[in-house]
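Input record (one chain):
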Amino acid sequence: MPESVGRRWVAVLLAGLCAGLPALAQDGRRPDAGARWMAQVTYVVDGDSVWVRGEVDGQRRRVRLDGIDAPEICQDSGREARAALQAMVLKRRVRVIGRAYDDYGRLIATLEQDGQDVAQRLVAGGWAWGHRYEHYPVTYGAEEEAARQARHGLFAQATPELPADFRRRHGPCTRPTR
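The corresponding structure, as predicted from the sequence alone:
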């Protein structure tokens, strides 16, 4: 193959590869954002964020549980929500099902422990709210309603404050990073 044809071929190939990069960056996907893998929970940051270490690659990742919002650590019931999550998953094996990355670089994922959705269990126990999206039903809405009716966890309070409202009024708590 003549040298000029080879260079053109490489240029076309590189242009094609580069054209796909903005789409990759735009939707927030990274290689493990659609993957499933087994990991061990090494640290619980708060009621909806953990650090895990992958079983195969040994890589540490910060994971935000998909579909819920737990109280901030400095908010009423924040430490109790973290303790509930610690009791479920700390130093235990979980399946991580990645969906995307958030603005803070955390993998947004579903965690399954012994075949059960950890976020769903937290909401059912009254330690987190299901996510609220405009014009969409609340994630884990039935579990949240049952926890409210039974006055489980943070729903034992007369008027528990949504974490998003708390953050708007006070800003985020200072969180340890690991």
